Amino acid sequence: MSSFSRSAQQWATFARSWFLIDARMQPPGKLASMCSVRLQGKHKPIYHAMSDCGDHVVVINTRHIAFSGNKWEQKVYSSHTGYPGGFKQLTAAQLHHKDPKAIVKLAVYGMLPKNLHRRTMMQRLHIFADDELPEDIRANLTEELPQPREIPRKLSEYTQEEIDAFPKLWTPPEDYKMK
Is 85 left (phi over 0), alpha (psi -120 to 50) or beta? Predict the structure, then answer.
């Protein structure tokens, strides 16, 4: 009986889990660091750099990622075709409009270790622009990871009691007119 539980425990340790991450209103760098830890298997107690013990990661809603500041226009993604004059540059907004999954994919690719395991780890990354998943992937999901950044609530989502309880910094005079 004890050998059965030991083998079940070993199987659970070495089995590949499927993690779900919602990318809505999240910065790509924070998503990429969470994904790279799971893809490498660094969250497991049996982690070793030469063993391939990483898990599958499913990222949904990459169409709705968020950059801070003015990074949509200032961040530049570069590539080269290999031919003379083949240097291409795209801003984050242009790349996101062309392919909504590309920014998250490039961020995760840059966070993984630069060795021969990187390509196999990227095969375990499944990225979807919307929240619709194929049935085979939905059936394999084992855990949903919390979002790295809390999503701010819209003003329409607050109740009138919460709005009234918010401290007033300035009360306008009665004769004050809004433009």
Answer: left
